[in-house]
Design goal:
7-stranded mixed beta sheet, alpha/beta, 19% helix, 4-stranded mixed beta sheet, elongated, 7 helices, 304 residues, Rossmann fold
């Protein structure tokens, strides 16, 4: 939030050419030191023009997508402190990226492609972290409590929390307390960890994409107290980015028994017993028939 000494921000037309924009009144606050988001994006735009990667006839929105380090639904433009913004861009090179992170508020620069990070066909896709750090943290709110979900944004697909988070609302309408759950396509662990908060007796999390599983293990530790975890065991993860036969890579004990697997969900039940509920949160439009059949031994399948 802006402090009491922050000046009101002028309206900046993101679609207007850069050369026509007046930036009077946009400045870092002398009291709290925070910068308006538009000021950071304007400084990034001017740097890209210097590097020959943009033209000042292009609009401010051509810079790219700004991603706040902490994801939380806000009704107003954020004020940024040091290293709180990750820039997701297309027309950028390593030289420009190294200059962009010299802007105090910029934490990292990611060059994106048409592929979606984390989508696995024959291989998994990532974007390129050109400079800085790509770690973000989303605040996930539910009726059971709140979680922090860390993710390496160049390797995990973008999914910002919203005030009304439909996937969480689906879980809130299920009977989870006292039951066992499989989060079969778990990503960084959001839905599986909400099930732990909801009172599940056991939660199995699995994903074919190793970077997602590495984020799950971070999120177990980050939410340790919230989830009532007494102990966490980590096992050899190997170095295969795309999993095959399921490999147990982590286990947590406490209020709920939690197991984390890296592998193809179609092979998961060679290592895991069927559970009461199987949650499937696949990418939109991706085929689910084969996965449904693989999970048919579970009592209930819930597609998110």
């Amino acid at each position: 939030m802006a402090c009491r000494e922050c000046k009101n921000e002028p309206h900046i037309d993101k679609k207007a050419p850069r050369r026509s924009l007046e930036i009077g009144g946009l400045e870092r606050c002398e009291h709290c030191g925070k910068a308006p988001l538009d000021l950071v994006m304007l400084e990034a735009m001017d740097l890209l023009v210097e590097e020959g990667l943009r033209d000042d006839r292009e609009p401010l929105r051509s810079v790219g997508s700004p991603m706040i380090e902490i994801g939380y639904p806000l009704p107003y433009p954020p004020r940024l402190g040091d290293s709180q913004l990750i820039l997701l861009m297309e027309r950028v090179n390593r030289s420009a990226a190294s200059r962009l992170i010299e802007i105090p508020e910029v934490k990292g620069v990611i060059r994106r492609s048409r592929q979606i990070p984390g989508v696995v066909d024959k291989k998994g896709h990532t974007w390129e972290l050109l400079s800085g750090c790509d770690m973000r943290c989303d605040i996930i709110q539910s009726i059971y409590g709140d979680l922090v979900i860390y993710k390496n944004q160049s390797k995990i697909h973008i999914e910002f929390p919203r005030e009304s988070y439909p996937k969480i609302r689906i879980l809130e309408n299920l009977r989870i307390a006292g039951r066992s759950v499989i989060d079969g396509l778990c990503g960084p662990g959001t839905l599986g960890l909400v099930c732990v908060l909801a009172g599940a007796k056991k939660v199995v999390m699995n994903d074919i994409w190793l970077p997602a599983i590495e984020n799950v293990l971070i999120n177990l530790e980050a939410n340790r107290d919230i989830l009532g975890i007494d102990s966490i065991e980590l096992f050899d993860r190997g170095d295969e980015q795309v999993g095959g036969s399921p490999r147990l890579v982590g286990r947590a004990r406490g209020a709920c028994e939690i197991e984390v697997y890296h592998g193809d969900i179609r092979k998961l039940f060679s290592a895991v017993s069927p559970q009461d509920i199987c949650i499937l949160d696949h990418f939109p439009g991706a085929p689910l028939d084969e996965i449904r059949r693989a999970c048919s031994s579970c009592d209930e399948i819930v597609v998110i």
